[in-house]
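Renewal narrative, Specific Aim 1. Our central claim is that a sequence can be written position by position from structural information alone. The example that follows is taken directly from our test logs and has not been curated for this report. It begins with the structure tokens describing the chain, in the order in which they were read.
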């Protein structure tokens, strides 16, 4: 099991998708799971939406329940790439206990690092397809046709929480709640760091190297 870490907007989703194609393990994104739950109109989705729109972390019990349900699916039996989870030490401990019950474990945690102002610029220019979750950027990765997803042809849009105030709140929350998780995995000898400020291909090369050492 691989944990992919880093602040919002660092490129975890892009790298996880590339890694999924490379090694065949499914990308499991808490953001995607939560947005899907909200679109489905479920109770858990409605509860999560209130936190997401405010740029706050969704409570652990909601996130852990979604992750457990996803990891129980057949395509994740051999492992998964966890994108955006765990975000707190409590979540990391819950994941560890969950996996131990199934005789599984986290094999590596990779941290993508980037400066805060660069993160803000990245997120403000981000465009997402609501249908297939493909991610584009108005500057670094624009779609071939403005406003239209290259993959499925549906409309691209900015997420409701992709505004500067919410972004700054998410980054402050990340520093307070998620950075302790870095120490959690570092203490177990599982953490590797990759400079997320490089090009997409350079970051991917660094990620591949981190998985092999």
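The sequence written for that structure reads:
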């Amino acid at each position: 099991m691989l944990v992919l870490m880093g602040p919002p907007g660092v490129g975890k989703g892009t790298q996880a998708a590339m890694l999924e194609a490379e090694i065949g393990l499914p990308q499991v994104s808490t953001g995607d799971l939560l947005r899907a739950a909200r679109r489905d109109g479920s109770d858990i989705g409605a509860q999560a939406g209130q936190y997401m729109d405010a740029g706050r972390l969704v409570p652990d019990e909601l996130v852990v329940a979604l992750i457990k349900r996803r990891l129980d699916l057949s395509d994740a039996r051999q492992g998964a790439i966890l994108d955006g989870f765990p975000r707190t030490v409590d979540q990391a401990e819950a994941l560890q206990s969950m996996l131990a019950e199934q005789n599984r474990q986290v094999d590596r945690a990779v941290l993508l690092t980037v400066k805060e102002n660069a993160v803000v610029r990245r997120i403000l220019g981000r465009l997402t397809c609501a249908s297939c979750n493909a991610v584009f950027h108005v500057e670094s990765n624009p779609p071939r046709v403005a406003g239209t997803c290259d993959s499925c042809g549906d409309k691209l849009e900015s997420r409701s929480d992709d505004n500067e105030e919410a972004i700054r709140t998410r980054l402050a929350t990340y520093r307070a709640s998620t950075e302790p998780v870095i120490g959690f995995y570092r203490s177990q000898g599982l953490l590797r760091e990759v400079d997320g400020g490089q090009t997409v291909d350079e970051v991917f090369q660094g990620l591949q190297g981190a998985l092999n050492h």
